[in-house]
Specification:
By secondary structure, the chain is mainly alpha-helical. It has helices at 7-16, 27-37, 43-63, 81-97. It folds into two domains: 1-64, no CATH class; 69-99, no CATH class. The longest helix is centred in the middle third of the chain and has 21 residues, at 43-63.
């Protein structure tokens, strides 16, 4: 993972709930969280949390695609679609053979 210049924003994001129900956080949810915690975010911080939440929700949705490649190049081979396809083929052969 790359270095983070504002790690406290990640802490806030996790506290808010990264991806509730698979959706990104709304500005209203962020505002309610601020009101409930007494933490005041400036505009940059609120927009950054919103963007991080949206990015996480998008990647969360992609992760459910069994044919998708991994998001990082250093991923081990078992995370790539070729491995997933081979596992599906093995499963099909086992079913056909009654194993």
């Amino acid at each position: 993972m790359p270095e983070c210049a504002a790690p406290y924003l990640l802490d806030y994001l996790f506290e808010l709930g990264i991806c509730p129900g698979g959706e990104s956080l709304t500005h209203g949810e962020i505002k309610s969280w601020q009101d409930n915690t007494g933490i005041e975010l400036d505009a940059f911080e609120a927009r950054t949390i919103k963007r991080l939440s949206t990015a996480y929700a998008e990647e969360h949705a992609k992760a459910n695609d069994t044919e998708a490649e991994t998001a990082w190049t250093e991923a081990p081979g078992y995370m790539r679609s070729g491995y997933i396809k081979s596992m599906k083929l093995k499963e099909s052969i086992r079913k056909a053979a009654g194993l």
